[in-house]
TrEMBL record:
Function of the molecule: Component of the microsomal membrane bound fatty acid elongation system, which produces the 26-carbon very long-chain fatty acids (VLCFA) from palmitate. Catalyzes the reduction of the 3-ketoacyl-CoA intermediate that is formed in each cycle of fatty acid elongation. VLCFAs serve as precursors for ceramide and sphingolipids.
Entry's localization field: Endoplasmic reticulum membrane
UniProt GO BP: fatty acid elongation
Reaction(s) catalysed by this chain's protein: a very-long-chain (3R)-3-hydroxyacyl-CoA + NADP(+) = a very-long-chain 3-oxoacyl-CoA + NADPH + H(+)
Top-level enzyme category: oxidoreductase
Active site residues of this protein: Y211 (proton acceptor)
Name of the featured protein: Very-long-chain 3-oxoacyl-CoA reductase
GO terms for MF: ketoreductase activity; very-long-chain 3-oxoacyl-CoA reductase activity
Binding-site residues, substrate: S198
Topology of the protein relative to the lipid bilayer: Single-pass membrane protein
Organism taxonomic ancestry: Eukaryota, Fungi, Fungi incertae sedis, Mucoromycota, Mortierellomycotina
Enzyme Commission number(s): 1.1.1.330
Length: 335
């Protein structure tokens, strides 16, 4: 009889354990499902803060770095279409002048240009920019300028020049530009700072270690200053970006995960203040394909898996890039 009682007690305990783990599993699935639904609502149904709050249509100015090509150029045109005056900053004066003239004719807004090489990090350039920006009402700053490794490269083989350029352009430029404009934003208790981040800052990317580290810095720094500046009326948003068709990405064909700059920037500007697929504070992943990818990374598999996944991708890209270099070298030798 005692053995029967023990068997029943043990069976009841096993049943309770199974029920408990089943309930936990259902709760986990339910929470994951709700988080995915939130992402879908964010990217397809919700609208962000209207740019009128940041001076659009009432004489406000936006500053865009890396404005002569790709995403930066698209930011310039779409901000101008919202009736923000533009300060365009990039390396090539001729490109900036042509873009500024087109924007003025098309959207009837004012423009200013300043040509500088962010990789040099010259103090005089930043001093001159401060003189240019202090007298105008800068409501929006888009820290878009960026650079990357030429090809995926092991850290110990990367050149000091490329490492220096990545740090100067991706980190120092964002901090220095923000330092210039944020005092006047604080004084007016109004401003928007958009930092162009990367999935490489979300998941470490082997063979792009310096670039990946620079974007991880940008993510952490954006969260820190975002918390500091929010009570003062200044909104900081690190935009977690996957691939976009551009010269820097070297991708020419668009897909669900890789948009052209126009729809990508439209998503960013249409969802200011909405997290989309991002799970970290003061961060957004507004483009639907990127948002879903961000959700998958956050909710499926482990970070070790994703780091290994990035390792495999970059290893393959590096092999193909090295073979291409060999072919080009052989072709040049035979000419």
């Amino acid at each position: 009889m005692e053995a029967v009682v023990q068997f029943v007690q043990k069976s009841n305990a096993n049943t309770a354990a199974v029920a408990l783990f089943g309930a936990i599993g259902l709760a986990t699935v339910a929470l994951k499902t709700l988080s995915l639904l939130r992402v879908l609502v964010d990217v397809f149904l919700r609208s962000g803060i209207n740019l009128k709050k940041y001076g659009a249509g009432r004489g406000g100015w936006a500053v865009v770095t890396g404005a002569s090509d790709g995403i930066g150029k698209e930011f310039a045109f779409q901000l101008a279409s919202k009736k923000l005056n533009l300060v365009l900053v990039s390396r090539t004066a001729s490109k900036l002048k042509a873009i500024a003239e087109e924007i003025e004719q098309k959207y009837n807004v004012e423009t200013k240009i300043y040509a500088m090489d962010f990789a040099k990090g010259a103090d005089q350039d930043y001093q001159d920019l401060k003189k240019l920006l202090d007298p105008i009402e800068v409501n929006v700053l888009v820290n878009n300028v960026g650079t990357n490794h030429e090809i995926p490269t092991p850290f110990e083989q990367e050149t000091n020049e490329i490492m220096k350029n990545i740090v100067e352009v991706n980190i120092n430029a964002a901090m220095k530009m923000t330092k210039i404009v944020v005092p006047q934003m604080i004084a007016r208790k109004n401003g928007l700072i958009i930092n162009l981040g990367s999935f490489a800052g979300l998941v470490p990317t082997p063979y792009l270690s310096v670039y990946s580290g620079s974007k991880a810095f940008l993510s952490s720094w954006s969260q820190a200053i975002g918390a500091e500046l929010a009570p003062m009326g200044v909104h900081v948003q690190n935009v977690n970006t996957f691939f976009v068709v551009s010269a820097m990405s070297k991708i020419r064909k668009a897909s669900m995960l890789i948009p052209f700059p126009k729809p990508y920037v439209r998503a960013v500007l249409g969802q200011i203040g909405i997290s989309g697929g991002a799970s970290t504070p003061f961060t957004s992943t507004p483009y639907y394909g990127h948002a879903l990818a961000n959700w998958v990374i956050d909710n499926l598999f482990t970070r070790s898996y994703w780091v290994k996944h990035n390792y495999d991708i970059q290893t393959d890209i590096r092999k193909r890039a090295l073979r291409k270099r060999e072919r080009e070298a052989a072709a040049a030798k035979n000419q």
